[in-house]
Amino acid sequence: MKRLLVLGTGMVLVMLLTVHASAPAASHPGTVRDKLQDAINRGDLAGAMALWTDDAAIDNPVVCPEVPCVGKAAIQKDMERRVSSKNRPKTLKHYVSGNLLTTRVELRSGLTEKAGVDRIILWLMYEVKGDKIAWERGPLYERTDPQTAKYVAWQKTQQPAR
């Protein structure tokens, strides 16, 4: 009787694993963000662009001050900026809820160097659809960090008068 119970349990586990393995898996939002980060770090503009949906949006008050940047053409301009700025983001932590991602990032770039800081800490939010990014919001600067606070103060002196 005990053998039948063990054999039956084993068969159920094999069936569950087979069903689980054959089900199409959506990409983990953190994995998609990590692919974007890797492409930017490599200077791979095409690789970075391939990770956005055609109707994606970036809501960034610095890059798109009036309205969010929508569509691949607008996003490409921001990706070009990130690559040319020699952005070197490093994920500190991902927080995931379904297809939504909040990421805490350490960023080193040509701009952080110009500001006289080693790195800054910021937060970014994403919605991921399948294996592509549908929107990005941020950055939200972690101003309690002294280097980030210094960068934010420097950044205000760099913005053109409107």
Estimate what percentage of residues fall within beta strands. Answer: 25-35%
CATH class of the domain at 25-106 and 122-142, named: Alpha Beta
Largest sheet: 6 strands, mixed
SSE pattern, N- to C-terminal: HHHEEHEEHEEH
Under the CATH scheme, the architecture of the domain at 25-106 and 122-142 is Roll
Low-confidence stretches: 4-25
Main sheet strand line-up? 2-1-6-5-4-3
Global outline = globular
Radius of gyration: 21 Å
- The overall strand count is 6
* Mean pLDDT over the full residue set: 84
Distinct helical segment count: 6
CATH topology of the domain at 25-106 and 122-142: Nuclear Transport Factor 2, Chain: A
Structural class: alpha+beta
Roughly how much helix do the residues carry, as a percent range? 40-55%
Calculate the terminal CA-CA distance, rounded to whole Å.
82 Å
